[in-house]
Amino acid sequence: MATRDIDRDAAASSLNKPPKSRRVDLKLEVIVIPVSDVDRAKAFYARLGWRLDADFASGDGWRVIQFTPPGSACSVIFGKNVTAAAPGSVRGLYLIVSDLDAARQDLRERGIEVSEPFHGGGDVHAGTDEPYLFGSVRVSGADPKHGSYSSFASFSDPDGNGWLFQEVTTRLPGRIASDGTNFASTGDLAAALRRAAAAHGEHEKRIGGHDDNWPDWYADYIVREQAGQKLPS
């Protein structure tokens, strides 16, 4: 057997062996955004309503600024001599929202241009202008079935770094906490409660009266919704 074959077999065998050490959590902390004008970028991200965490400089040769989107565990940094990437070259930065219309309205009220809602459709299309949408052709309007992970809107910073809102109302299995719920912000929880309230209203119409056990019904609805299970009727 050739040495190359032995090395390949050894590598494949090692992949099937469980690690000896315990698993270490890896938490994405920072994404670097390449910009051409640091102060202009700082003004833009502050205008978005994001939290300014840091603005550090060392003489005239280095500066780094950090912002964190509301409800996010991951931040963005940009500055002077922070990255060699071309300004505006970053695309497909996803911001997960529970209410796409509300997120778009918030940007408009802040004077930020944002696209109309759209969703992916059709077969894989390598020539699309949005290759980071899993190769799908962009279709105008929100997803007709209102599927979670299916509706988007886009906006850009002054350099052209591209951001996407993606509406997620029900998480995929494995993306939820052990108790069945995972809310990044009070806004996400409030949106889930509003959906539960609307569904409970329909439930009371079906049973023909008031349901005194509505707290339990709400809790069951929210847990099932986030777990992707059949909703209560």
Model description:
It is a single chain. This protein has 3 domains: 27-87, 2,3-Dihydroxybiphenyl 1,2-Dioxygenase, domain 1 (Roll), CATH 3.10.180; 91-169, 2,3-Dihydroxybiphenyl 1,2-Dioxygenase, domain 1 (Roll); 186-227, no CATH class. The protein contains 5 helices and 9 strands. Strand 8 and strand 9 (162-167) form a beta hairpin. A 5-stranded mixed beta sheet has the order 5-9-8-6-7, with helices on one face. The protein has a 4-stranded mixed beta sheet with strand order 1-4-3-2, with helices on one face. Mean pLDDT is 82; it is low at 123-128. Helix 4 packs across helix 5. With 233 residues, the protein is α+β, with helices and mostly antiparallel strands.
Question: Which features characterize this protein?
Answer:
five-stranded mixed sheet; 2,3-Dihydroxybiphenyl 1,2-Dioxygenase, domain 1; 5 helices; single chain; 233 residues; alpha+beta; four-stranded mixed sheet; 9 strands; 3 domains
Short description:
The chain is α+β, with helices and mostly antiparallel strands and 233 residues long.
